[in-house]
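Protocol step 6 of 9: fold each sequence in the batch and record its structure tokens directly after the sequence line. For illustration, a two-sequence batch is reproduced in full.

Sequence one:
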Amino acid sequence: MSKKPLPPKPGQQADSHDPIYTSVIDGLKFLYRTKMKPMEETYKFGDFHSPILSDSDIEAKPMVLLLGQYSTGKTTFIRCLLERDFPGQNIGPEPTTDRFNAVMWGAEERVIPGNTAAVQEDKPFRGLSKFGTGFLNKFQCSTLPCPLMEKITFIDTPGVLSGEKQRIGRSYDFPQICEWFAERADMILLLFDAHKLDISDEFKTAIESLRGHDDKIRVVLNKADKISAQQLLRVYGALMWSLGRVIRNPEVMRVYLGSFWDQPLQNEETKKLLEAEMKDLLTDLHSLPRNSAIRRLNDLVKRARLAKVHACIIGHLKNEMPTLFGKEAKQNELIENLATEFKKVHKNGHLPPGDFPDVEKFRENLKLYDISKLPKLHNKMIDAVDEVLMVDFPKLMQQFPIDAKAKPTVLEINPFAAEEDPDFWQQWDSVNFSLYSSRFHSLATSDGKLSGSDAKPIMMESGLPVDMLSKVWKLSDLDKDGRFDVYEFAIAMHMLDCVRDKGISLPESLPSGLIPVAKRSNF
């Protein structure tokens, strides 16, 4: 198929060839893949900052990261919200949770080991592979068919102990893992026990790794019903003082008071206050799915700005290198005076200082590379990212207004659209993607694909003739690899339902309107 045209430049009118997105997330995936990802790969942004994103990273459900020292009630907090036990939970007064546990939706209750979860295309954890088996052996996914899990994923973490022994005993860098999850999380909950407010050195380091994500952080003072109102006032003041020494933020951190477990509140004196606080936190959590698309857009805007500055830095360092002789000496000089080089890039490119990376961290990563072999600055890539920031993202927000609500589909606006237009079934808007994707993910797919042998009995449930099923398979298998991904499966099931229930005739070729934006760049 012909190559998709770029969106218009500022001042130009949009034409009929502009990309049409079915959702904010669909648009973000397309823009990232076509305009941001090429520059990130060229200038090795993933090695210096954050790994390259996949579609599953962008379309992932809102993620809530829970951090706290041991026995602050992180696992019990999740159980309280789910109102039931979940696979892999381990609750006790002693340090019980010894691994990172992603609690998420699944058609059946099971625990997926970390090494397996990190290679599944339908899960947003493929980037964890860079931390190796030392970490993946301490990571797992707990899936369960719970209504809340259809909208939110919780990340339970090991309780942090005081002292050096635990830090040395870990086979992975705890703060680095926290930083990885924090970048992808929609909310970060720091849990404290009202009876012990100490912040250990490792917990302090973990909190410091959250720098840059202050807007996501919420603090929970748990088990607050076991102390009097006077004691609660003193504990709250002590907590704010302790946090002020760790989180260098002029704004006051939001602290929720409560007692999150399956027992009634024990102190009548503070009951109304704690109930109101707990209700506020639940309201905050319930707003996450509604604001998820806006959060993803915000994260990609930040990422695009960082990637642009990173490319300018790499291009500048490359230009400073000699052509023939003295390369090693010049590289050492550039690395030693990196702060000065940053200032040059800032001045020459008129780039915001806040978008520049930490000098020391960048210096350590740069030592692993031969600067003379890094790529020069390509202005076309910079222009593409500028276009994303100044044109594409604003245009996407015009199509889906920032009111924390999803744009209604054609059927939601007019429930009789299908009856008025007999060809409406040929549009992606007519596909009940949530229904078909739920069924797809309920099937055992190790790599995010469904084999022909597994799909055959499901398609035969339609009761249609074999020759018609064969034609549906050929039309739906867009990449012709003999397997279905979630989009191809949805297209196939949609066509089967339309043939069986509406009596449509199968077309000779797949209507272009049925190809989702996520797949259009390949066809």
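Sequence two, same batch, same settings:
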Amino acid sequence: SSSISKTSTIKRTSGESTEKVSPIFTQRRINFRFPAPITHMAVANDCLLIALSNNSLIRVETEKPDAAQQTIDLTRFYDEKIHSLFMDPSGNHVLVSLENQENIYLLQNTTKFRSLSKLKGLIIDSVAWNYQSSKHGTKEILIGTNRGVLWETEFVVPEENRLFITSPIEQYAKQVFNLGREAPVPITSLAFEKFRLPGTKDHRCLIMLTTPNRLYQFIGTIPHQSEPPFFTNIFQLYEGKPPSFLELPGNSDYSEISFYRYKFNEPPRSFAWMAFPGVYHGDIDLHSDCHSQSVIKNADLFNYPVSSSSNPRAVLLTEFHVLLLYDDCLRVVCTLNGQLIQEDHDRYSSSKLRKLVRDPIKQTIWSFSDQNVFKISVVDESRDVWKIYMELSEFDKALQYCQDDVTKRNLILYKEAQSLFARKEYQSSAVCFAKTSDALFGETALRFLEVGDSDALRIFLLKKLETLRVSTDRAQMAMLLCWLVELYLEKLGSIKDAEEGFDELQEEMRRTLAQPRFKAVLDDCQKTIYNLISSHGSTTDYVYFATLIRDADRVVSHHLSRNEFTAALSYLMKHGSAPLIYKFAP
């Protein structure tokens, strides 16, 4: 294979260095050769199905591109051109709609096909496949026509020895709703999702579809004992009232919706609707209020890139990006901030790029032009997500995506601390400043001194102490402990008369000093701490500190000076040494 595109220069800048990085999305041409131009393509479960302008279909295994291609010739029975081509997620079922309103079912792993008599007279623009399908059948599916009519049907595959029996493939075909009553309107894309309601066998169902200017939602419940057509349980709720829809302005004859699923067997998490004004993107919450008429959350419309002279032909949504296919290039936009991150131009063909498709099981992404098929590789899609979330001030999400990179983590915490400080949330900012090595100690401490928030400064010093080690930072720890003691004593002195909070704050100071890992550090700075306590006249704290560091001489001297002889004797009996006892003996 060879690269389709000359990717726009992408650079990542950090400080003074500029580093070129490879694109996240890379489009490569696959070396297929076809006897006629490509008109349609579908992919599912490692199987590519390609429709050509000569009314033939080519089946290719994507994992074995050099293997023999299987050709299905439709011209023996059908002269009309192919209007649309659909393949279910399992790759077992194929539906072909012709311009003359004939519809064909292609039998799996064969070149045989059957006419769908119950669907004759329909030109099909969209199909919502059932993700519970198997090789034996599709289960219930929805079909959208070029005139705005929705049909429900189910395909059942005959056994091998019954391929030529004339019983129809479609078990039933029923019209279930009509959006084109006032005027015909094509249903350009269509999907449904069912999930079991808690504590019941019933299913809640969401149906989403698009017309050129509208996005519709149909929401309801399908009882577990329902008979086909199943979706009438949903659509009958809307017979007397209009369904919920979003209409966007513009003169367009086509729109398209793409869904993102984290895994094949999981419900969609988000969607992107390619409409005339731009891409309407949002989250899908299937567990929203059961009375709600919408499952769309956090939606926003972002414009197409300014470099675009026309609207895109196709859209495909990934976890963090929207791929937009134009006649001559692929553009990639980040859904988190609406920014264009890549622009790849086709340099292999003068023919127009036509469509984007994704394998729902294998998650591979493909595109095609009249002459070529391309595979789009995705490498490390989330690599810059941490930075985007940081720029959006969504710091918790940024930390989730920094991949335990210490440099990135420090930068995120520093930015969060600055943001909190700017909002005057000084104590919260102190916690963040203390966690990052990007914050200069003196500069940060000065911030809190300048705004006069001693509580925030105390929190900063406490949290900073938690990040230091006695083996390497002993001198700094001694300095911080002395500073903390001074801040505690000043605060205790200011609230002593009010008494509210005094006991709690004093206990906090004592718990801090009593931490076992500070024992060696206190030996280095005990003189300074004694002087600080003495200058504030706190006798109880003086005795507590002397007792904490086992300074028996000071403890006994204190008790004797206050004629507390019993207390002095009690302490000497527990902690006194022979020289100390002789010193205080009468």
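Proceed to step 7 once all outputs are recorded. Observation for sequence two: The chain is about 25% helix and 30% strand.
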